[in-house]
Each structure stands twice: as structure tokens, then as C-alpha cells.
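Lab channel / #folding
Pinned by the channel admin:
"Please post every new chain as: sequence first, then the C-alpha cells as a reply. Keep commentary short and put observations after the output so the thread stays searchable."

First post following the new format, from NK:
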Amino acid sequence: MSIHERHRLSMVVNARGTFTPLGVSRSSATVAGAVAEALPEFFVMEQLVDRVSDAIAHATGAQAGTVVHCTSAAITLAAAAAMAGTDPRRIAALPDTRDMHNRVVLPAVHVVDYGQSNLQAIRLAGAQVTLVGDENRCGLDDLDDQLDGPDVTCLMLVCSRLTSGEPLDLTAAVRAAHRRGVPAIIDGAGQFPRTADLLATGADLVLISGQKYLGSPTAGLVAGTRRMVQAVRAQGNGIGRGMKPSKEALVGVLAALEEWQAMDRAKWAADQATKVSAFVAAAAEIPGVVAEVVPDPTSLPLSRALLKVDDAPGLVRELEAGTPPIYVMAERADTGELMLELVPLDDTEIAIVLDRLRILLDK
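Reply from TO:
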């Protein structure tokens, strides 16, 4: 009996990508085995955190690294670190920030909602958020004006396909912050393959999800300067206590990082491209479907399948109502477009998706 059968849970075909409500991603057998090995054991947790921190730094090229419960927690603790540093008194006071610089500058085009607004994740630390520009544009001149204001503690930036408006030059934004002596933090939750690129902007911290493309257990990876990473770790004696990683998450991250570094990444990217191209070619033969290959807008080394159909919202409902339910990216369904990410799907699941599309559209 499978785990789904044992607990009366729905089997799911996840073509929506690294989506938290569907369990985010699949871990490899090696990572799962490492987690199982860790669960019955005791550890000196500070030693384990040190080992994982070294592994993150080695894998990303950062000066230092650490792990917190998830990327949302990393946003909160990065803001806390910028305000309180390693000062025990300030750490104990949070989220009371009355005697601290507590304004986090955030481009309005980088306000995102991943089930929780990143504004709330920042405010949980006690910070006040100053939005710059509007939902369509944030210029470097706008950033300069706000970064020069009183009580600014950090600049928060987001690298995600969920951002809106004109793209912002992250390197230039980081430089603008540093000219004012303000640390810059990049939330790159789904950007693990591009962590080194994000660090190359000069950002003081880059925040990454371990459970998305790295395939670890739930974990927020923090990579950056030694000083800022130490400040994030110090928050474990304050509001970070409730956001700490578990032993199995830490061991799973170690295993996932080892796999990542041993992997032939060029072959992985080529395999993903082949998978998407074959799917698009098959989907384009279904009556009423226009199918295209779409590169990732943030330059991740993967592409997705874009399907254009007459009644996209209705198709989404029928896909999710079937057995097994099939989930796709439906944010643009009202304009007749559906996006499918095939990274986690095997050949059998891809065949299920294509068969379902043929049944539903060839009526």
C-alpha cells in the first residue's frame, strides 16, 4: 500500500513547478536515505550547522552560509540581522525596533505573494517597509532617494518570475545601496542554480529555497558575507528560534549539495530541453492547441511548455478534477494561456498529461 493509499491522499501530477501547496519538489533516493539515516540519531547541532554552512559556501562561492527553516523565514531573519546584527540586547528586543534603524527599502515591482506577502515576512522582524516606485517601474534614481533617507537598515530585492513591471538591474541596485553604506539582500527563492550569479551582483545575502530545484527537505539557504551570515545565525537566540532547521533538514541539505556538485549540469539542462521540446511537439498535434517552448524569464537553465487554448479556465478545472488531478500554472488562464513545468515529471506522467489533454480537447 502506497503512502497515498495508506493516508487516503490524492495522487498528484504536478506540472505547476516548485509549488508549495503541492509539496514543492521531489527529493532523490539519496537525499531521502540521508534524511532517514539522520532521524534516529543525535547530533551536536551547532557542529551540524557549521558543516552545512561550509558546504553552502563551497557550493556557491559565498564567504559563508547558513540554513533556516525556509526562504520565508530567511527573509524575516535577514531583515532582523540587518537591524540587530549580533548584539544580544537588540536580538532579544525584536520585534521591538524602537532604537534601531528599521526601514527596509523594497522596489514596488518586487512585492510578491507566494501564499504570504513578502511584505509581511519583512514586517515580522519588526521592520517598516518603504516601497519605491510603483507596480510598473522602479528606477535607480528612485532607489537612490529612498536609500539616502533616515533609519534605512537594508535594501531587499527579489529575483523571481513573480515580480512585475520593468526588470530592475540587480547589480546596479546593489551598488546604489552600497554607496549609501546599506546592505543589500536578494530573495532568490527559486533560483538555486543561479545562486553564484546573484552573489556576483555584490549582494550581502542571497536567500534560496533548498526544497525547490536543489531537492532538499524544507530549508532556507542563506549565502553571503561572513558578517551578515553570522548576524542571521545570531537571530537563533531570538525570533529565529521558531524558524530553526531540523537535523533531518540539515543532513538532507548536505546530501543534496553533494549531489548537485557531482551532477553533470549541462546534461541535465539538455535533458530538460529535450523533454519540453518533445512535449510541445506532441501537444501541438492536439486539435485546438497552440504549443510553444518558453525560456525561464529569470534565466534559470530550463524552459516550460506554453499552451494556448480557447477555454483555459475550464481546462484547468477539468484537469484538476480528473484522476489523478493534474496541476498546471494557471496565472494567465484568463488570457487563454497555460504554462506547464515538466522538470519533476517522468515519462509516464507526461504521457498522462498528454492523454488527458487529448480526451478533454478532442471532443
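NK: The longest strand covers residues 152-158.
TO: also worth noting, The longest helix spans residues 265-283.
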